Amino acid sequence: MFKNYIKIAWRTLIKNRVYFTINTIGLSIAIAVSSLMLLWVFDEYGTDKFHEKDDQLFLVKRTIPLEKGVFDVYEGISYPLLKTAKEQFPEVEEFITLGRTFEDNLRVGNTDLRAEGTFANAAFFKSFSFPVLVGNIDDLDEKPEALAISESFAKRLYGEAWPEKAIGSPVHIYDNGDYAIAAVYEDFPSQSSIQNDFYYGFEQHLSKNDWMQEWENNGMQGALLVKKGVDATLVAQKVHALHQDNIEGEFKEGVILQKFSDNYLYNQFNEKAEVSGGRIEYVRIFTIAAILLLIISCINFINLSTAYATNRSGEIGVRKVVGAKKKMLIGQFFTETAIVTSLSFLIGLAIAFLLLPYVNTLTGKVLEIDFTQPYLLFTIVGVFLFTTILSGAYPSLVVSSFRPISALKGASKPFH
Q: What global pTM score does this model have?
């Protein structure tokens, strides 16, 4: 039966090439554009969520009181707060220093290279899922001249022989000093909001910036790694009290903790220092736009299919007269719809593959269509079923409800 459905459906579609082509092209373009939009959405949702200790990593932020009970939220935090929180609170496993990325010239031998980097402590690599390939990352805390560089930057400097040549090599950072490579770390994933070519030790940075020892400075960012199973709300209350006990002024600043992986999408706060939005708003807009685009293309498909079905009233009338049941006609029309949507999906995904490099250039991301990813596979299957059912349901009911006598007379009057 099903084989017969496919054979008849294919012959019918080939016979009506104009209808077939218009529907296929329309759906293909919608599927290609929607697929690219959803790829971007999935990538945004996945940013910073790959860390093994994701549930334990919290960014420390300051709340600054303004007039009439209004608060402003900043990411700048003081080093003494981070250090003391680690020393005093058993719930805190590590404190992590996060410097602001800067671009500088680095000299290796007679070669000058432009690269981006900042300072960090060893806990940065131990807390986040940023594997160290060679060397000892603890040198960042123990040796003032220690420098950690990325794998790709090491290849730029030493080619494929970097595992043997990199460690111990001298590097001069202009306006910063002389260093020696102590470790090479794996390139950060594309879904990391942090991307740097090099890191030098925070202790080295601190020795040149005594003002960072003050409680009221905000010259760096920081995070805390809390112990597994600890209530982050209680830790936030303790850190807030610790901060207020060590600063002066009538209107004292406060402290809040935000899950590190939430910061990328939810980095805007209202006047009560509560999360109110951020990049998530763009993600929602793109999600809704992708769904609406699919729905509009399906409505267009329905309109064309319904109009096309009225031209087949004679065929439908003959089938009903010779004994075709309603469910058989519905199955036949759904088969035709499934063929169109299947071809549209194949063409749409092919278009998406071709456009992907340009989309990556435009967005600055590394998007890819990887069918081994369950979420992508389920999404494609879900969208296919959604498109097929939505596009085929109404036209199938219209076709199957034609009255045989009226259909044979050329007057297609369904639902009577």
A: 0.83
